[in-house]
Design goal:
The protein is built from 7 helices and 5 strands. It is α+β, with helices and mostly antiparallel strands and 165 residues long. Strands 1-2-3-4-5 form a 5-stranded mixed β-sheet, with helices on one face.
Length: 165
């Protein structure tokens, strides 16, 4: 007879905050994702730590051991970046140069984890640098709307974030 601890509920990931799209683009721009088949490591911008990602393309399920996945049960930036890199989520390549070398973790700390204020500050700085902020917003919202239509399932049980990575 199957043990209860081996039974888990398959669920659909919750929709992410739009900030996770910006973070995913920065992961790709900074080449911080190592993909090996249906597994990957997503390195943090501020350290040598990484998150593990596992994907099952047959059943459309994904898992990551990052904070957003575990605590909010929503698609996280490592999962979104992975899905972008394998072609499941389309994005405008031009965005990558724009989002290179942005340390979102530091920006979030500065704005006390207010994601909307953080995005506004970054877009303000990009505008001062001459970037087309309306293009950035439009393309990021296009990605976000695509992600929100996806119904991606969890792959196994939620994975507690590791402090050891």
């Amino acid at each position: 007879m199957e043990k209860m601890s081996q039974i888990f509920k398959i669920m659909i990931w919750k929709k992410p905050h739009i900030s996770k799209i910006y973070e995913a683009l920065t992961v790709i721009a900074d080449d911080r994702m190592e993909i090996n088949g249906n597994k990957a490591k997503c390195y943090l911008s501020s350290s040598d730590r990484f998150y593990d990602i596992k994907y099952d393309p047959i059943i459309g399920s994904i898992m990551s051991n990052d904070n957003a996945a575990f605590y909010t049960k929503s698609l996280s930036y490592p999962m979104i970046a992975f899905l972008m890199l394998i072609g499941k989520i389309p994005y405008e390549q031009k965005l990558l140069e724009i989002f290179r070398d942005i340390c979102w973790e530091d920006i979030y700390k500065e704005f006390k984890n207010d994601y909307d204020k953080s995005i506004k500050a970054v877009l303000g700085e990009l505008k001062r640098e001459g970037e087309d902020v309306e293009f950035i917003r439009k393309e990021t919202e296009k990605i976000y709307n695509f992600v929100c239509k996806l119904e991606i399932k969890t792959l196994g049980e939620l994975q507690k974030p590791s402090r050891e990575h």
